[in-house]
Fold this protein.
Amino acid sequence: MSTNIYCYHCHVQHSRDEMRLVVTKTGKRWRCERSIKSAQANKEARDAFGRRITAINKAETQANIRMRSKD
């Protein structure tokens, strides 16, 4: 059984096998392997990953706003 876990870095639910528990200043948090690998890449690749995640988050927010305004 594969449960989904929330990635605090990219704000998306991933299956447990794609996640790693990392220690931060504020405690332990789940982070996806994709975001960990992207953080280890060169600056251009990190920036591209950040822009993709930002675009996804903005689109999600806009969709939520549109759904709420229809009610």
Q: What stands out?
A: Helices lie at 33-39, 43-70. The CA atoms of residues 22 and 43 lie 22 Å apart. The chain has two helices and four strands.
